[in-house]
Amino acid sequence: MAIEGRSDAKKGGRIRLGMVGGGEGAFIGAVHRIASRIDDHYELVAGALSSTPEKSRRSGKALGLADDRIYDDFETMAKAEAKRPDGIEAVAIVTPNHMHAAPTYAFLKAGVHVICDKPLTTSLAEAKKMKAAVEKAGLVFALTHNYTGYPLVRRMREMAQGGELGEIRLVQVEYPQDWLTESTEKTGNKQAEWRVDPARSGAGGALGDIGTHAYNLADYVVGLELTELSADLTSFGPGRQLDDNVQILLRYENGARGSLWASQVAPGNENGLRLRVYGTKGGLHWVQAEPNHMLWSPFGKSTRIVTRGGPDSGASAARVTRVPPGHPEGYLEGFANIYSEVASAIRAAQNGKKPDKASHFPTIDDGVKGLAFIEAAVKSSKANGKWTKPAR
Amino acid sequence: MAIEGRSDAKKGGRIRLGMVGGGEGAFIGAVHRIASRIDDHYELVAGALSSTPEKSRRSGKALGLADDRIYDDFETMAKAEAKRPDGIEAVAIVTPNHMHAAPTYAFLKAGVHVICDKPLTTSLAEAKKMKAAVEKAGLVFALTHNYTGYPLVRRMREMAQGGELGEIRLVQVEYPQDWLTESTEKTGNKQAEWRVDPARSGAGGALGDIGTHAYNLADYVVGLELTELSADLTSFGPGRQLDDNVQILLRYENGARGSLWASQVAPGNENGLRLRVYGTKGGLHWVQAEPNHMLWSPFGKSTRIVTRGGPDSGASAARVTRVPPGHPEGYLEGFANIYSEVASAIRAAQNGKKPDKASHFPTIDDGVKGLAFIEAAVKSSKANGKWTKPAR
Amino acid sequence: MAIEGRSDAKKGGRIRLGMVGGGEGAFIGAVHRIASRIDDHYELVAGALSSTPEKSRRSGKALGLADDRIYDDFETMAKAEAKRPDGIEAVAIVTPNHMHAAPTYAFLKAGVHVICDKPLTTSLAEAKKMKAAVEKAGLVFALTHNYTGYPLVRRMREMAQGGELGEIRLVQVEYPQDWLTESTEKTGNKQAEWRVDPARSGAGGALGDIGTHAYNLADYVVGLELTELSADLTSFGPGRQLDDNVQILLRYENGARGSLWASQVAPGNENGLRLRVYGTKGGLHWVQAEPNHMLWSPFGKSTRIVTRGGPDSGASAARVTRVPPGHPEGYLEGFANIYSEVASAIRAAQNGKKPDKASHFPTIDDGVKGLAFIEAAVKSSKANGKWTKPAR
Amino acid sequence: MAIEGRSDAKKGGRIRLGMVGGGEGAFIGAVHRIASRIDDHYELVAGALSSTPEKSRRSGKALGLADDRIYDDFETMAKAEAKRPDGIEAVAIVTPNHMHAAPTYAFLKAGVHVICDKPLTTSLAEAKKMKAAVEKAGLVFALTHNYTGYPLVRRMREMAQGGELGEIRLVQVEYPQDWLTESTEKTGNKQAEWRVDPARSGAGGALGDIGTHAYNLADYVVGLELTELSADLTSFGPGRQLDDNVQILLRYENGARGSLWASQVAPGNENGLRLRVYGTKGGLHWVQAEPNHMLWSPFGKSTRIVTRGGPDSGASAARVTRVPPGHPEGYLEGFANIYSEVASAIRAAQNGKKPDKASHFPTIDDGVKGLAFIEAAVKSSKANGKWTKPAR
């Protein structure tokens, strides 16, 4: 509730939002739109919703966009919107990975803040170029590693980095799915098609699609530098060029160890993102599919079920909580938390203020780290698991 | 996603919505607002958000309402909005129970569709008057028994009424909470204050607040008439006039039996709404706090975990599902499903069309049934558990 | 482990045990035998294992009994064993309900301690006669309400009666099964046959078979007198004379309320015994099918997962725990705890000592209470749910 | 139940059993004794229960052994028992790892069948010597990797090796504990002391103690040769010479991948053994702490909860099941299943028969494989995770 009524974001009304990608048949576009609406900080007013102009037009109409703000391509959109007095203030880029960089450059150039889906792009080199562009533009750039928006993920971070677990020793993170168990990409499934295509996805398959989510989540929570990794990437699906299963061992700066498993060929798993963190004083266990509670095990004491909004859930989670405990919030609310924090940052930027310290949505830096992670994992796996340092 | 793009609701843009109640410090008002926004069918444009004019004004401003559409009271609002060419088309009434009827009459009179929080009102007599008023007005009236909006509740209904469980024999429903374990109402908690006050809540305490939710949920799923009940209502909190614990035995028209337990003094329960239905061919088990899966036990076979969006989740759930399985939807999305179905019904009404058959949000009839249930339970309990037939 | 090495029970070697019933095809006989062996306090040496002599003989041989100690009937066995210098010290009676009383009288007369399956017998009048006989004999009589043997049930009792939950307000107990969903008794299933037969089971069907377990468990844990009950017994199975579903509301001496649900027609439930107890200071939740942990919710604090052997599991559970936490103990170990406590009581009796105060296996008094409960429930149900006081 | 009455084992009465180790203060000795008694195939008659003669004597008396069969050391015991006409037929060796080999040689020489705790010994070289000795003796040798005795583990094996999962692609196994989070070995805890001592445990710490259990479980279920592993062993506890955390990546002969995590420093984990196996047609998920159900996810269908004794639990589990579904069996019953199968094998050997094909307790070969696994893991970790082939 705090979120809805946040006065800084309301000043000047809703943020005018555009969207690139996310037309008919897309999944993540609708998610971004709902996330933008939940706390009422945005109004979608323009879009280049598909690379097929006709589809873009049809999708735009269905979403209630004015005819003159439905664009055939993002370049035109960026230029046209920049000229309007009521032009968009922010854009959501929800295209496949290889189509994140170009729109980013175009909209930054047009003075538009950017909200971009993950992974940032298809190569570390490009990621670094994007970072330079963001820094040069001085605009807000958010990367929707949305799982960091869950209230109890905020709580995990608060506890892990606040010392409540003692010295961190172990980070076990996994993200199994099953939707590529069979050759889904050969059945006309568009989601599958581009994800198994190196030209559109980059060097990582499951690695880029969900492995980076797992990596980012762990990184966000423990805040320790990953100094080395040893990876074994596998492609089980016949003819697949990219990995569909990822096993990675992790070593952190303080000596902590860990493992990351991501898979798209594990039957029975829908979005089985799970994070366990163990330190000298206690452990935490959280599962994305049931995000409204986590287990906290202070060493030597009974494990506690910490509920979102419940007695041990802390200030950082309360900040991004809308309804009392026992009424579940989900994926869309977590996503909305990112959107709402970004809105606050955009308003701050527009007003020449510093962003809220309590806010920590993923940024261009997380995008660069994600690509460094992908490239290190690919490199390690090609070298038969050689321990490899992610580039910085 | 189907929900977001529903063309009938988009025709003519968003529905102009007003709100009565739901100002600062209220919980359910924000829930209604978010629910109205999720699928983009409404725009909040007016409100009488508090019975304290100053608070109404402050709340309206924080929500971005235009100054001339923030009203001191609902009567003024109903009249003023009725005169505007851009006046509200629907109103959400989110006040305590005793303040549902008067605004309903006022807005119906003004030609405004009504979305009203539950329970409908404080007496069966009033409920019947409201029903007459709704029928006379010929407008849409929705009661936000929001739990019926959960996709898997839709699936339970589809299975129970579609014969997949065989003849229904047992209905076990419960809704335990713990927030009134201690005398919360004496600590300045406004939510608690009015709920334990017969003047504002009516004859039922936990019975009206959550017992009616449990009753409505069971009724919605099995679709059988409750022919008799035997109730034992208790007030454990010192000095409480209304029940804070409810035990009710149930008998249905076909001979099915059941029990309903609602409590606000059961430590460890947040919103422990749970429904189990058993028939000659199988059983179902669903828990509100983890709403994205349910257990289906076809007799003689292994129990299946049916996930929202998963293989056995059916058409009626798919209709109100936004994101794929494994990414949880929650309370707000369930609530939004009601709002979106109501939007569709309002558009149909405005266009002289019949409402969508697949749509089934709770209506004035459910409100009347709820009050009949409350009064029967109170009567039975006063008669030491005499089996009592709810009035029809 | 404490259990295995208990010195008082070892004095004089193992207790010589006989068995009545429990031959081929029986289920509970084997359970009793395993339970008697687990902690090494008994040696089975004699038996009248079936009412069919040939079957008794075959069963006895399979179990390694000496030929001259396999008997055709319990009367012969009682007399013969009484004459032997190495005659049995205790007997386990594991026949259907209507065959508990006669062997009890015979063995008590022969000076043999009795371990009897539940419910005690088929009428309260008979139960009282049995109690008189036990008291006259001055021998140990144990009733195998085995669920009281689970370590965490001991812990629940310790907490509930030790004040850790404050004043008890609510007792919710249920025991659903599904094996009589269809007409199992007509398929040659012997377990089903006698359970639906009033001549062998008494006045209660599910009520006597599992309802008494649920009642006993609640009674054992909270230790409050059940002052009144209101019952609704139903027979769903075509042609069944006895109930297969039981709904009972409960009122306790201190004003606590509760409900008991037992059913044998609830698909998906195997042995779904579940107990929840709520007081002014906290709540407990335990499920028999997963007996190695329970939930403890101190009011206002996070719920804790209390594991058998873990930090909050207490002394009374530790006493009957064999292996460390995380290695599950189950039904047979719980049953064995009863057997081992009985062994200790028998040795104490033989040595003229008082029984161990920490020991509390169910006795003849629990048997009488069980029949009083059954008869009160049947009476209440016949009177359409009239609140009825169990006889004392 | 089938287990209790198995006629082959009963012929000739109970097997006379001796025990080496397992005296006062030991944990696993009592477990072996209970396991030996549950199905009534053994009678403990002799023991060298401690390396401290006085303690051995005291322990033996407490267990009811005859004075002349309580020995000061295993050599004396082996010789003395060999001379008795009623000498032991089998011996259970339950000492720390470094004390498995010598008693094995002594008892094999004495013609006594051996049941030995895991891991087999402290080096692969010794393991191979033991194997040669077992083969030369022609006696039964069982290694108590007890988790293979759980009914649903049998079912997992049956399904994985019977093709119901299709081609196996992934094996995820983990065994976290938390008891060495702090320096337990410095607090007088004997269990901890020897486990962190290379002289008594061998080259592996957590690796040998629980990592071998995890490895053995996976091996037992999937039946695929582990061709390579890459290990990262860590010692977090200050001053510890042996690992207390183990991360291992796995590659199997058919191209399947996997990971194994074992840890004794993960707060909140008691005995968190968990196995997940995924193939082209489906997945399985089983957790040791709740062993009476597992999840089976046939690809594209809803996940099923398979219960021990329930509809999908199969023949191999039924064979080692005692009580119906819903009444939990646990750790001791799983352990007893190993003991009972060994009894059957011993009787077969004594009678010149072949062992039961349906029986598959772990043998000397599993012991050798376990040591090969330990040595490969240690070697790989020393070579910074070099993929290493376990010796064969």
Q: What is this entry, summarized?
A:
Four copies of one chain form a homotetramer. With 392 residues, chain A is of the alpha/beta class. Helix content of chain A is 36%, strand content 20%.
Question: What's the structural blueprint in terms of helices and strands?
Answer:
The structure is a homotetramer of 392-residue chains.
Chain A: H1 7-10, E1 15-20, H2 28-38, E2 42-48, H3 53-62, H4 74-83, E3 90-93, H5 101-109, E4 113-116, H6 124-137, E5 141-143, H7 151-161, E6 168-176, H8 190-195, H9 198-201, H10 206-222, E7 226-234, E8 245-252, E9 257-263, E10 274-279, E11 282-287, E12 293-298, E13 303-307, H11 314-318, H12 331-350, H13 364-382
Parallel strand pairs in A: 1-2, 1-3, 3-4, 4-5, 6-9
Antiparallel strand pairs in A: 6-10, 7-8, 8-9, 10-11, 11-12, 12-13
Helix pairs in contact in A: 2-12, 4-5, 5-6, 6-13, 7-10, 10-13
Give a description of the structure:
By secondary structure, chain A is of the alpha/beta class. Chain A folds into 2 domains: 7-146, NAD(P)-binding Rossmann-like Domain (Rossmann fold, 3-Layer(aba) Sandwich); 151-314 and 367-382, Dihydrodipicolinate Reductase, domain 2, CATH 3.30.360. Chain A has helices spanning 7-10, 28-38, 53-62, 74-83, 101-109, 124-137, 151-161, 190-195, 198-201, 206-222, 314-318, 331-350, 364-382, and strands spanning 15-20, 42-48, 90-93, 113-116, 141-143, 168-176, 226-234, 245-252, 257-263, 274-279, 282-287, 293-298, 303-307. In chain A, the strands form 2 sheets. An 8-stranded mixed β-sheet of chain A has the order 7-8-9-6-10-11-12-13. A 5-stranded parallel β-sheet of chain A has the order 2-1-3-4-5, with helices on both faces. In chain A, a hairpin with a 5-residue loop joins strand 11 (282-287) and strand 12. The two termini of chain A are 39 Å apart. The interface between A and B is large, with 43 and 43 residues.
